TrEMBL record:
Belongs to the methylglyoxal synthase family. This is Methylglyoxal synthase. It comes from the Bacteria. One of its GO terms (biological process) is methylglyoxal biosynthetic process. Catalyzes the formation of methylglyoxal from dihydroxyacetone phosphate. InterPro entries: Methylgl_synth (IPR004363), Methylglyoxal_synth_AS (IPR018148), MGS-like_dom (IPR011607), MGS-like_dom_sf (IPR036914). Its EC number is 4.2.3.3. The active site is at residue 62. It comes from Rapidithrix thailandica. PANTHER family: METHYLGLYOXAL SYNTHASE (PTHR30492). Transmembrane segments: none annotated.
Length: 128
């Protein structure tokens, strides 16, 4: 079994919040393998973290990460969705959320929830 990864995804309207979140959690995230959608991955790299960047969301990146969820390669998903935005790939977004729920993979869709999800997982040794 490959090492499981944390997935990080942010819509464009939430990328600034995602970068702020990464900066606040750099220590906790530094030893964890990260996978991200394409453009999000560039921001993750700029924040100083290594990342496996998939395709951009509208080109299938959410679907690639959804497939990893199904194949038990993902420990948790941080997905900062923009509730005010419209996205051509909304079906892929819904698929990812549905598959996290189906496979009981922790999913946080805003920074407050993501903070407590990571904190709890670190405290319980689920990210080491
Ligand atoms: O659209 C996205 C998630 O649905 C994010 O994709 P990018 O990281 O490529 O911007």
């Amino acid at each position: 079994m490959t090492n499981k990864k944390i997935a990080i995804i942010a819509h464009d309207g939430k990328k600034a919040e995602m970068v702020a979140f990464l900066k606040d959690h750099l220590t906790g995230l530094s030893n964890i393998e990260i996978v991200a959608t394409g453009t999000t991955g560039k921001f993750v790299r700029q924040a100083g973290l290594e990342v496996d960047a998939k395709l951009s969301g509208p080109l299938g990146g959410d679907a690639q990460i959804a497939a990893m969820v199904v194949e038990e390669q993902i420990k948790a998903v941080v997905f900062f969705r923009d509730p005010l935005g419209k996205h051509p790939h909304e079906p892929d977004v819904q698929m990812l959320i549905r598959l996290c729920d189906l496979h009981n993979v922790p999913l946080a869709t805003n920074p407050a929830a993501a903070h407590f999800m990571l904190k709890g997982m670190i405290e319980e040794g689920k990210l080491s």
